[in-house]
Amino acid sequence: TPLRWNHFLVVGKFSLLYATCCKINLSTCPSVSVFILCAVVVQGMSKERMLEIRQQNCFPMTMKVTFYKKPVFIHQGHMQWLWDVDGKRYLDLFAGVATVSVGHSHPKVTAAAERQLKRLWHTTNIYVYPTLHEYCEKLASNLPEPLKVVYLTNSGSEANDLAVMLARLHTGNFDIITFRGSYHGGSPQSTGLVSNHSYKYPVASSLGCTNTMCPDVFRGIWGGSHCRDSPVQTIRECSCAQGHCMAKDQYISQLRETFATSVPSRIAAFFGEPIQGVGGAVQYPKNYLKEAFELVRERGGLCIADEVQTGFGRTGSHMWGFQSHGVIPDIVTMAKGIANGFPMGAIVTTPEIAASFNKAVHFNTFGGNPVASAIASSVLDTVKEDGLQKNSLDVGTHLMTELAKLRDKYEIIGDVRGKGLMIGVEMVKDKASRDPLSPEVMSEIFEDVKDMGVLIGKGGIYGQTFRIKPPMCVTMDDADFFVAVFNKAVHNCMERRVR
Q1: pLDDT score of 1 more than 70
Q2: 112, 191, 223, 259: which has the highest count of C-beta atoms within 10 A?
Q3: What are the boundaries of the signal sequence (predicted)?
Q4: Which residues of the chain does CATH 3.40.640.10 include?
Q5: In sequence order, which residues have a C-beta less than 8 Å from that of residue 353 and are 6 or more positions away?
Q6: pLDDT level of residue 8 (50, 70, 90 thresholds)
Q7: Pick the CATH number of 47-96+388-496 from 3.90.1150.10, 2.30.29.30, 3.40.50.170, 3.40.50.300
């Protein structure tokens, strides 16, 4: 009732006053910050009215992608936590699709945004302004040579579109190769790169895109227990000699087959996510990308790393996912975590390749907007100052190790994989067949986890993989809480199957 909420708000304001007077750091004192955030939940539009508008005034696709049978009505966030309009708290382990990198409403990033909003909201790069150039220099300093030239966009789809055009302009070739199961965006051109039927429309998309076999060592034809760079390996048996992966050799043979049968002798580019995101946190055999890049360059193509989900320290061991593979791409695309959820994307490439873009004029009105640049700059600082890359490695390794124990416990958990806080849990009917768990059973577990207070994602070609990609500020306690919740949800599922 209004009376109850008004009382709650008054208590919340006193709590905030107490925290301020005592100089309590809310980001490190959840017992106070949680209460304050719950207390500021306000009355607004009813859930029924929001759904009515969603159905009548929003594009139908909005309803199609709405998670859960009973949707979550998000009102506020703080670090790794979200609250709905009723004040219920959720541990956010999906981060708005791997987008909130340093934490919801992170105080440092929020302060940077506020400072810039008071100074200048918008101008474009037809003018020279400090925040754009300060950020471009800072971003480039976080990449290896010769990747030093930056172009800012508003999204990963825009960045990948631009990378395709740049590769074709620079090489004079047309054909692009991507992995099966890949996802590179939702624009008309980037959907041509995508290899997942759920994101394909019966209309012409970008021509000249060819998909090659994804070197998936769990679901693919070849794979074993020593293939991937991950704290947790697949349960498939492996007879490879030490330091030599037969699965890698077989998948490279398939790439050679693609070159021999499906594309011209000269190509424009090869696109690869260091770890597939929407595809279900799929990892490749060690050294696969290194050999693949060599084959692509022999055919005149550029090597493009799509770091939209893996970048900015999420994989833990490195700032960028491609570094784990021992390669340096010709172009790197990025978005999502780049600005902690503020719309932004980028490509970074070499001076030589960037010069090929001068054959006409390209202009992005909002790319490098002052507020976006200020936020993105603060994100880079925060990743370092808060030690979030190391936290991703430590918490992610712990979480995967604990999830692997559940894999060994339950027949329907087929695989646990990933690096840092880029984690996938693939669900199966049984370990022998590796057939995907049905969408209905996946939804039961998904809903159960949500009802117990944790938000995760789903992915994979068949929607059979739970995706765990939280803000990088999550703690060991958060990881243990999720493991307990997931254990209970899977246990409930198994009990229903027995009945």
Answers
A1: no
A2: 223
A3: none
A4: 108-386
A5: 149, 166, 170, 302, 330, 331
A6: very low
A7: 3.90.1150.10
Residue 40 structure tokens = 């500021």
Determine the Cα–Cα distance for residues 128 and 351; give it in Å rounded to an integer.
Answer: 20
Q: Which tens digits make up the pLDDT trace of 241-269?
A: 777 889 999 999 999 999 999 999 999 99
Distance CA 426, CA 437 (A): 9
Please tell me the distance from the alpha carbon of residue 172 to that of residue 166, in angstroms, as a whole number.
Answer: 10
Segment 74-84, tens digit of pLDDT: 999 999 999 99
Distance from C-alpha of 92 to C-alpha of 79, rounded to nearest angstrom? 9
With residue 302 as reference, give the H or E element that holds it: strand 302-306
- Among 452, 383, 450, 449, which Cα is nearest to 421's? 383
Report pLDDT digits (tens) over 149-182: 999 999 999 999 999 999 999 999 999 999 999 9
- Give whole-number Cα distances, 370 to 24, 179, 336, 399, 420, in Å: 31, 36, 17, 37, 31
Does residue 239 sit in helix, strand or coil?
coil
Q: Which class for 69: exposed (0-12), middle (13-18), buried (19 or more C-beta within 10 A)?
A: exposed
pLDDT digits (tens, 9 = 90+) for 292-322: 999 999 999 999 999 999 999 999 999 999 9
HSE at residue 412, side-chain half, CA atoms within 13 A, is 20
Determine if the peptide bond prior to 188 is cis (ω within 30°).
no
Alpha-carbon span 225 to 298, nearest angstrom? 31
Assess contact for 295 and 287: CB atoms under 8 A.
no
Contacts of residue 257, Cβ cutoff 8 Å, sequence gap at least 6: none
Sheet holding 457-459, edge to edge: 413-419, 422-427, 465-468, 457-459
Whole-model pTM? Answer: 0.90
Angle subtended at Cα 393 by Cα 413 and Cα 470, rounded to the nearest 5 degrees: 65
